[in-house]
Amino acid sequence: MTAWLMKFGFGGVQEFIAQSRKTRDLAAGSLLLQDMAKAVAAEAQRLGAEVILPQQPDVACPHQLLLRWNDDDAAAIEAHGKALRAKAKGAWQDCVLAHVSDELASLKKVRKDSSLVAPQLEQAFEAYWVAVPLEKEEDYPTAFHDVQQRYELRRFTRTFPQEEKPSDPLGTCAQCGARNAVVDPSKAFRHGKLDPRDKLCAVCLAKRLWSYSKFDEAFPSTVHLARDRFFRLPEYQAQRKLLEEKKAEAKDWREFQEGTQETDPNVLDAIHKAMEARDSVTAYYVALYFDGNRMGEWFSGEHFADGQDLKGAQETLSEALASFVTALRAGASCLRATVIYLGGDDGLVLLPLDYLFPFIRLVRKTWQEHVEQAQEVCAIAQGERGPTLSLHASVVHQTAPFQRVIEDLHPALEETKEQGNREAFSISVAPRAGSEAKALFRWEELEALIQAVESFTTWRIEDFPPKGMGALPAKSELDDRRRQAFPARLPYVLADGLAPLFDENGALSTGDLETAFDLELKRLLGKREDPTKTADNLFDFLRTLVKGPQLGELAPRGRLASVLTVLPSLARWLDWGSGEVQP
Prior knowledge:
about 575 residues, alpha+beta, Alpha-Beta Plaits, 3 domains, 4-stranded antiparallel beta sheet, 12 strands, about 50% helix, about 15% strand
């Protein structure tokens, strides 16, 4: 009997998720698509299909599914495809239509257009599928490659109907910029879920409203992420409680004044001081994106050992990815990470800056244990290890346009993959005032990078899980660390002092100049006593950047300069400060 392979997926996924002005919008868009994919997988199993990929949809469900049907009738396969598409559309409508309709009906004294809701929700995304026959089990590799190619052709030929222009338009959605708005709050509008800037289309409104039914009211905002020390440390408990009572945790003083009915000057003064305490801590957070390298090639069998059964190897790798997701999600909960998406081989996470390096270390360790060096994966791989991983982390100010931050992650990671030989990670820093800088690192340099950052600041990775609890160190400990730290301006001194030793192509010439580089670097680092050997560690790290294995076509001078630009920003923003909390 002829079987069939079917690939099912969604179109416009990245745009749908990234069109987000708030963190909860981003999380809602991602989770909605995951829930729809899970619903489709469950429906396929109910109809008799075998879900080949992913192996554990409830644990790690990407936005594409590979299914096997044992029906030999093409008409039956077409009916199954249509049923799955209807299930996806139905799950979407069931999740959001009532939320949007009820909310618009309840809104008074605001401009709105309910006639656009149904067509916009219907056209929010496209679900599509392709299927190819599988005559014999030994034909599986050929059928798999065929369904892959046909799916890509189908994906790049998708069409979207044009939205009809309303008779009395409210303007373009302020969030996605792609559809007409269905609600336009007034400037004086006050609402628990919307604010005056939320001129939204039905799709963006749906994500916002659904998020409140799925997540806690206090879903972490960029302010909560950036000012995490204020919201985490017990030293700020009194100020934090006051702002929570006044629903002003994420508001600035002017915004609070415009909306409050509080008149007691003593209370207002206490709120103002609490906001000053909140704003005294670091104002930066991290948006982090990672992805397994060449996963399409892996699942196509290009890196499996000769003689491996393709379907069995795919299932083994998919199980390993599900194991990775389970372990990473458990570890992330200890690092105050807001997981937006974990699809198996890729993930999007928001987290406080304090936890940047603990989380990168966790991702690397977990990927190695469950995928790259996992015994069951190595057993099916051509070489001695499984797929590698690339990662990019953007450190941004809380006021940076959130949608732009998210949109920039994917191209930044792709650049990291290309420059880093698909086995590297990168960190970019974007000061509120100043130019963005990005540095690229081999995974083997992670621990040396952490030590280099620590040598310029009072922050230590041991303050955080699994060793520490993220508590504020004692003032005496901070004083000792500050005495040991290098001057903040040293990276700039190093960049200026070492630049003349490189040639016009950014390379370090051999011979006398190579020796001169070592001597000059030691001279610049050796201007103070160093009982902790911090200078030796920093010397080895910087020397490796220039003389060690290079990444892609990056010239040593450019790589050294980028690291010496990123280091002081990270050190400054991570520093614990004086250790004294404002009363």
